[in-house]
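Private note to self, pasted from the team thread so I don't lose it. Backbone tokens:
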């Protein structure tokens, strides 16, 4: 059972509990794709832009910040095989620069001084520990708090915009509790089609968001307790990484419950090892402590065997996912 929940995880469970299980319980990690890499690097460039003095926040510097950010991460394991050819990478980079050019048509960074960027937001609602990172927080000319999120994708039509504010409503709820101040407005900046959607918020809106996240949290707890994570068909299924192993689309989908159990065993062993290593001298461990009898050599060997078994299962699942 997870101890913390982020708005993105909550949204994932709400969309499809089975997808949530694959990602967070079975821990079948979705490899970084071009779209995700673009969003991450564009976000980094925008964050770095607002580290510069106002007079230096030019388009040229913004584009250079993107190139610098990509240079730093392109060699990481998750990005190193992202492109088959240099031409594909160049095309990807040009598209990302176009997103940043679109941003400059929406806001003038020389006229903005963010209150905070990439702020960690944490808080508790009943028995739920909620946390996440919001992109930017400003104050308007009247001193009101504005919470902002960049989206590298395309804005939905206006009639479908409100569900997209779910995460920002939760951030606003936590900010209100932390600062004792009600944010005035939420703002989603969509870079692909140069669109800004805003939502004025009040106590009623935040109370409804609180009820919704607690309802999702209760459903998550019930899912863990009963090991019931049903697949839910929706409009995003065709873009879901896990579709090839989903029982809704594969009559012979692999059973991933073994992964779930292995992950639980791995977490328990790692906690025991961590507890023992907190003591420089094992003789200092109190006799009544349950970790006193832990044999580190056999525990590490058991952990290795479990990780090898897990990787073997993952390898077989990835063969299906790559078809």
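Design output:
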């Amino acid at each position: 059972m997870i101890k913390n929940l982020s708005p993105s995880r909550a949204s994932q469970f709400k969309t499809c509990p089975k997808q949530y299980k694959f990602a967070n319980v079975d821990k079948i990690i979705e490899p970084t794709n071009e779209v995700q890499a673009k969003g991450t690097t564009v976000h980094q460039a925008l964050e770095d832009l607002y580290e510069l003095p106002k007079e230096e926040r030019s388009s040229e510097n913004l584009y250079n910040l993107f190139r610098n950010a990509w240079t730093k991460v392109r060699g990481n394991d998750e990005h190193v095989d992202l492109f088959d050819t240099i031409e594909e990478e160049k095309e990807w980079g040009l598209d990302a620069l176009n997103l940043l050019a679109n941003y400059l048509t929406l806001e003038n960074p020389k006229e903005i001084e963010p209150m905070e960027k990439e702020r960690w937001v944490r808080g508790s609602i009943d028995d739920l520990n909620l946390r996440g990172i919001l992109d930017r927080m400003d104050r308007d000319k009247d001193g009101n708090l504005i919470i902002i999120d960049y989206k590298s994708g395309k804005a939905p039509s206006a009639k479908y915009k409100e569900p997209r504010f779910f995460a920002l409503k939760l951030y606003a709820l936590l900010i209100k509790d932390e600062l004792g101040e009600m944010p005035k407005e939420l703002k989603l900046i969509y870079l692909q089609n140069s669109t800004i959607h805003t939502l004025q918020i009040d106590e009623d809106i935040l109370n409804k968001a609180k009820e919704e996240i607690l309802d999702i949290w209760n459903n998550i707890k019930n899912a863990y307790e009963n090991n019931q994570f049903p697949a839910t068909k929706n409009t995003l299924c065709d873009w879901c990484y896990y579709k090839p192993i989903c029982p809704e689309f594969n009559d012979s989908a692999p059973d991933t419950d073994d992964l779930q159990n292995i992950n639980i065993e791995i977490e328990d062993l790692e906690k025991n090892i961590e507890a023992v290593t907190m003591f420089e001298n094992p003789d200092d461990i109190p006799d009544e402590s349950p970790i006193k009898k832990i044999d580190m050599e056999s525990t590490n060997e058991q952990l290795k065997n479990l990780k090898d078994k897990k990787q073997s299962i993952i390898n077989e699942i990835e063969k299906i996912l790559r078809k």
